[in-house]
Design a protein that fits this description.
The chain is an all-beta fold. The protein has strands at residues 9-16, 22-32, 39-49, 60-65, 73-81. The protein is globular, with a radius of gyration of 14 Å.
Length: 82
């Protein structure tokens, strides 16, 4: 696992650990609505590679871009945030 400075990093919460060597991370982003000037929160789920099995359900984690491991899994777990 290399940590190149050009790879995208995202922080989110683990919502599923049911798959083998995979965690599903829910990432929320906030932005201002262009018309209504109201702050909106949108979430997206990312499948991340987790070989060491260190992340558990509900953990805050950091994931980075990686090579495609499968059709959905294009991210890997960098660290579990305390």
């Amino acid at each position: 696992m290399s940590t190149n400075t050009f790879k995208r990093k995202l922080e989110g919460v683990v919502v599923s650990v049911k798959n083998e060597n995979t965690v599903v991370v829910n990432v929320a982003r906030r932005f201002k609505h262009p018309v209504y000037s109201k702050f909106v929160t949108k979430t997206k789920k990312y499948h991340a590679h987790n070989v060491s099995l260190e992340a558990n359900l509900g953990d805050n984690v950091t994931i980075i871009e990686s090579k495609p491991y499968s059709k959905l899994k294009k991210w890997e777990l960098l660290k579990v945030n305390k």
